[in-house]
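Lecture 7 notes: from sequence to structure.
We start with the chain below.
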Amino acid sequence: MNLSDIPAWFVKRFAADATGTFVRPIPTTSADPNAASLSLGFPPNTFAAIGAGGSPQDGRDVNGILNQLSAWAQWMGVGGPTPWASTISSAAGGYPLGAVVLSGTVTGRLYQSQVNANVTNPDTGGAGWVILVDKAASPADMIAGTSNETVVTPAQLATAGYDRVVAQSLIANGGFRVFASGYKECWGTRTYAGNGSTTITYPITFTSFSNATAQAASLIANAQDNNPAVYECNLTTCRVWNAVDNSLAGFWQAKGV
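Predicted structure tokens for the same chain:
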């Protein structure tokens, strides 16, 4: 079947404008031997010959059942969600594996059943359900940081003022991250031989350093003999001098934009 094979829409429920004289709801059961019900459909008496005491189907019942069926067809046609309902759960023996229902307490939340014959209520923590779709967190939700009932979206992160990582990678003895705002950071570890210099090439290129990070944008050495290394940095490299005659194990980092 193709998408183009979609049937005609129920733009209106069958018998939507029928008056009470010409339509009636279909009950689950009926004591009337001539009335339709969900249990018997059109009862046996409506199939018997009139001369033998039978009765023809009541037009109100025909309109009634077609109205009920087309109402659901119309609801599904416009993408209407189906909320969890104890009535249908009990009547049908529970929801099947994979069933999707709408939460009655959290706007926009959908649950999916993970088991067959699921009679529990997902809104009250019933077993056998998982959250399939949840509503998006507002900026206030993210700032508060207390809700487990929402999902975070990139747009809402930006609205709330949160930066996000758009690129990152591990490198030899370190790594780097690039944020959506343009902020960048890279870091790593290195052992520096005594009485010499080493040049570290950053895995990312900076446009500028902020005043705060420019002072810390290179080696933070665990120097021996309380004799720290000397360094100078630019936008692409950091050069480190180790003036002592033994090696230094250190951590370098660079931050900026």
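Points to note: Confidence is low (pLDDT under 50) at residues 211-227. The helical segments are 59-77, 86-92, 139-144, 154-159, 211-214.
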